[in-house]
Specification:
There is one protein chain. 47% of the residues lie in helices and 16% in strands. With 289 residues, the chain is of the alpha/beta class. The strands form 4 sheets. A 4-stranded parallel sheet has the order 2-1-3-4, sandwiched between helices. Strands 5-6 form a two-stranded antiparallel sheet. It has a two-stranded parallel sheet with strand order 7-8. A hairpin with a 2-residue loop joins strand 5 and strand 6. The structure holds zinc ion. The site of zinc ion has 6 residues, from loops. Zinc ion (ZN) binds next to loops.
């Protein structure tokens, strides 16, 4: 009897869920952008969660099942999710699969003698506008019945991105010229650096898959001393021990935590715009004097 009552209570909910577009996002930043634009008309299953590292992620059978049943799959592209292509093709899903970074002009970096595209394109707010329009178009294509709502939510989101762009230009743009070189764990901030004339160095390259050698760490410590780099920053997706060791041995101080490849689980940095603002404020505070 009690079970039946529960079933009656649950039924309307599950019917509603079946009507909503089922969306899978590959990592937390895309989950938030997609939620802002999709609003109440979609259900999101996100694969790599807050504070987690998508470079070294290993998907589960549950992830495959959600992709198989989805109507839309939103990925970053630029080889960020090295595990994703095989996962998607393995499910033979009929979902629309899009790369949110399509249309971004990719930065390239030399790594181990190869030229590779930098996947961290979301770290430039101008690129976030491209992500947002790609996500909006995909939602409309997968669920045309709610195109008006997606268009409206997109316009609201775009206005919020523009507002943060103006804030970033007025704060980061005013940092003293001599304070524009900093150190993080891995090369995740080159797009931000390019936008605001800040140079980022890191013991690890574009991906976190390979640990840096002792010689590479020693070279970075030397560079910090020689160039009088003032602050090093830990990242939310990484164990901060190596950076703390680098700070101690080089005499630089820890400037705070930057959100690189994932949102925070809670608090102001649990949305993309919140995390970007937090990064702007952390950088400004550490570098302005
Ligand atoms: Zn990364």
């Amino acid at each position: 009897m009690r079970v039946l009552l529960w079933l009656c209570l649950l039924l309307p909910l599950s019917l509603n869920a079946a009507e909503r577009l089922q969306v899978v996002t590959s990592f937390s930043i895309l989950a938030d952008m997609t939620r802002q634009i999709g609003g109440d008309h979609i259900d999101i299953y996100n694969i790599v969660g807050p504070d987690a590292d998508a470079h070294t992620f290993e998907p589960s059978p549950d992830d495959a099942r959600h992709i198989q049943q989805a109507g839309l799959v939103v990925t970053n592209g630029l080889h960020f999710e090295s595990w994703l292509d095989r996962l998607v093709s393995g499910t033979q899903t009929k979902a629309l699969v899009i790369r949110a970074s399509d249309g971004v002009i990719p930065r390239t970096m030399e790594e181990d003698g190869q030229t590779i595209a930098d996947p961290h394109a979301w770290n430039n707010l101008a690129n976030a506008k491209i992500y947002a329009v790609n996500i909006k178009r995909a939602l409309i294509q997968a669920d045309p019945a709610h195109s008006d709502a997606y268009e409206r939510n997109y316009q609201t989101y775009l206005a919020a991105i523009e507002k943060l762009l103006a804030y970033a230009q007025s704060t980061l743009g005013q940092l003293p010229a001599g304070n524009r070189h900093i150190v993080t764990s891995h090369d995740a901030f080159a797009y931000l650096g390019q936008a605001y004339g800040i140079r980022f160095s890191a013991p690890q390259g574009l991906s976190t898959e390979r640990e840096p050698s002792a010689a590479e760490v020693a070279a970075l410590i030397r560079q910090i001393r020689e160039e009088h780099i003032k602050a090093v920053f830990v990242e939310n997706i990484k164990d901060g021990r190596l950076l703390k060791q680098i700070a101690e041995e080089s005499g630089a101080r820890i400037g705070g935590t930057l959100y690189s490849d994932a949102l925070a689980a809670e608090g102001p940095a649990s949305t993309y715009l919140g995390m970007y603002r937090s990064n702007i404020d952390t950088l400004t505070q550490a570098l302005r004097d």
